[in-house]
Amino acid sequence: MPLRDHFRPPLDDMRHWEGFHATWPVMIVALLRRKLPRRYFAGPRVHPGSSAEIDVATFHDEGEDVLAVADPNENGGGIATAVWAPPRPTLAVVTDLPAQDVYEVRVYDEKRHSRLVAAVEIVSPANKDRPEARRTFAAKCAAYLQRGIGLVIVDFVTERRANLHNELVDLLGPGEAFRFPHDSLLYTTAYHPVRRDDREEIDWWAQPLVVGQPMPTIPLPVRGLAILPLDLEAAYTDARRLSRLG
User: How many C-beta atoms surround the C-beta of residue 238 within 10 A?
Assistant: First the structure.
């Protein structure tokens, strides 16, 4: 099935993009389960960026209950416990740490204590909407590569113009040759961290995505195993059918 624009009419009037974003990782997992050896397993991780806030007042009250001095005259007795007061903070810093959307698939090696060996990141609008969010996403991807974890990024978000691959390149510093042109908005990329001739390298594959065209098959490097073909078109088609998008 050709790629559709999930973020603009007419499709966004029919379905919320979040539902499809949550479905696609599950379909990728189903696809990988047919390709991975038994010792490897894949699982989806879906977490919209909005999160519940801690009720500070309630936490403070409950903390006082826990730390209050026990009265030995009460039923059951008890041991007197002093309330520890921490020193004043050295500095209070105002920060803007954006809550990250997470739509991803992780692959683990069961025989190595379920070590993470590959990841597929599906970009959401919130990953691209602010400089802070883009840097956070790039830092997450860079951390994967520094640990030798194979990585695929899929960006089919049409309503934001930022290029997260370029953000990653700026962070890693491999040079202009690895950057997409500024008009490259939709794409999928794969990264394979390898060690050659006593130096660390990253093999990079890039494919543009085009609305109205089928999606490509992209390499998925799995640490300690091999490079598997990730058929994005097959998983995308299954996700569309499950989401009743035709």
Answer: 18
